[in-house]
Design brief:
By secondary structure, this protein is mostly helical. It has two domains: about 130 residues, Cytochrome c-like domain (Cytochrome Bc1 Complex, Chain D, domain 2, Orthogonal Bundle), CATH 1.10.760; about 70 residues, Cytochrome c-like domain (Cytochrome Bc1 Complex, Chain D, domain 2), CATH 1.10.760. The chain is built from nine helices and four strands; from the N terminus they run ααββαααααββαα. The strands form two sheets. A two-stranded antiparallel sheet has the order 1-2. It is globular and about 50 Å long. The protein starts with a helix and ends with a helix.
């Protein structure tokens, strides 16, 4: 998938597409939408997300950014990847993305444009990454809901978080205790990445407690 992203970017640049009207300039709401819909699968340091199911977006766009490629080309790549996804990336109107019951076509396109603009502005952008670090991006032990949004929301359904991911289990239907949740977060397994070394023990415990307290079965 990483090779496909790079190939698409190169094709766009060679054909001189420019913005082509594919993505709007505004990234309003893009960070929140990205963490909710994409962060569980993709690493993006500025957003504080560490997903490993899909490619690291920082790695995918590091070389183009270093070579001075315009952000408009990156926006087009990201937007086209969402519009014409390569499995296991979900379709844009799927339940975990922008289902018709919740989004009109115009709202779906606007949301994808916001995500694309946000990713283009921060992927492999050292200044944006440093600023996010200063701002505490990605959530802290004092903000377990932010941790969930950044690391879990795109893979799991949890009504309290407004997430509807279907890659991992529906957490509203889970009845395992907090200790088991923390163990799963720490060690991963069953397709879930391990977060030990990526999240602190305090963050893991806070996240596990928040999930246990806020799931529907709790």
């Amino acid at each position: 998938m990483l090779r496909a992203l790079r190939g698409l970017l190169l094709a766009l640049l060679l054909t001189g597409c420019g913005t082509g009207g594919l993505a709007e300039e505004s990234a309003s709401g893009g960070e929140e939408l990205f963490t909710q819909k994409c962060g569980g699968c993709h690493e993006l340091q500025a957003a504080g997300t560490r997903g490993t199911i899909g490619p690291s977006l920082d790695a995918a766009f590091a070389a183009p950014r270093a070579e001075g490629f315009d952000e408009s080309s990156i926006r087009e790549v990201v937007l086209n990847q969402m519009r014409f996804p390569i499995p296991p990336m979900p379709e844009p109107d799927s339940p975990e993305m922008f289902p018709p019951a919740e989004y009109t076509d115009e709202e779906r396109n606007s949301a994808m444009s916001a995500i694309a603009s946000y990713v283009a502005s921060v992927a492999a952008n050292e200044e944006a990454i440093a600023q996010a670090g200063r701002d505490g991006g990605g959530g802290s032990a004092d903000d377990p809901e932010g941790l969930f949004a950044a690391n879990c929301a795109s893979c799991h359904t949890l009504a309290a978080a407004g997430s509807s991911g279907t890659i991992g289990p529906n957490l509203d239907e889970s009845s395992v205790d907090m200790a088991a949740i923390a163990e799963q977060i720490r060690n991963g397994g069953g397709g879930m990445p391990a977060f030990e070394g990526q999240l602190t023990d305090e963050q893991i415990d806070a996240l596990a407690g928040w999930v246990a307290e806020n799931r529907a079965s709790g």
